[in-house]
Amino acid sequence: MHRLDKDSTIYNFTLIKRVRHRPLPLLLYGVLPLPFAIYMAVSVSPSLAVSFVGGLLLLPNLYSGLTALYMKLLASGQRSAWSYGWRLPWLGLLPAQHVSLRIVTGIHNQLLWIGSAIIVCLFPWIGKDHVLMLLALHIWYMLPRFWIFFVLRRAKKPGLLKIGAGDTSYYIQ
What we know:
- Strands 1-6-5-4 form a four-stranded antiparallel beta sheet. A two-stranded antiparallel sheet has the order 2-3.
- It has six helices and six strands, in the order E-H-H-H-E-E-E-H-H-H-E-E.
- The chain has one domain.
- By secondary structure, it is an alpha+beta fold.
């Protein structure tokens, strides 16, 4: 039998809520912007297709950069590791371990508003149609994350979030 050191720390977490990432709804959600993008590219301007593809590729990089900057400047006391996730609804830089729900929602509120401000600041150079396309993609990326936060809102106690490949779990200590 393995003996624990007297200085060992044992963490006990109680699962409060688990939000599963079901493949079919995520697939349907992933395909949702395609008809809109095709319609905009055909009826408004073919260059919107370039804006759409650019937004699909650049927005997760923007989120990752802003998250890394946030963690470096404002949350330097955080010792948890962060890694990249490549699946909806969590696309970009994510906590690899348990992290405070308050920190994750704060980061995503910052991502929502700073990302919107950056896209709107591009208006003089890329035009109204491209800005609207990028804003629609930005909201499309953020909506499932805020839906998960909405589902987890009923938890009264401050807790920890664990983001996995198939689910997002909320624990209290």
